[in-house]
Amino acid sequence: MATAIKQAITGISMPETLLPVLTRILVISGDIALQRILQRLFSSEGYEVYVVPDSLIGLSKFFENPPTAAVLEVADPDSWDFGLCELITTLIPDMPLILLAAASEVAYRNHLLEIGGDEFLAIPFSPRELLERVRALIKNRARVSLQDLCGPEAGCL
Question: Residue 13 pLDDT > 90, yes or no?
């Protein structure tokens, strides 16, 4: 049985037009050094990366090429970053959203997660940890999407 399932899965091919969508990461950060680090980090792992300096440009890029996941640096609680976070989670609720901030207060971090962030990392953070969290979120969302697409009620499982 396991062999038959493995053969069926390996025989599935995805249309080429869907492949880039599966690996697109949008990074929104005003910090040039952080932009460079994240650009190198994600592109070295094979992700297509779009790095933009602020929320307004990020929103434009978001509509232009919807990403698989987004990494948003929230610089200031009064900035438009909060609104962007809420908008992204409203438009595409299943898209992984990782928030970065130099905040150490628990209430502030909790608020960031309440407005739609899936993960929070305090700056400074380990780039490897960020990469692993992004990978895990994308993998989990893909698994959920596959179950929605081909669940027991569809007769696939």
Answer: no
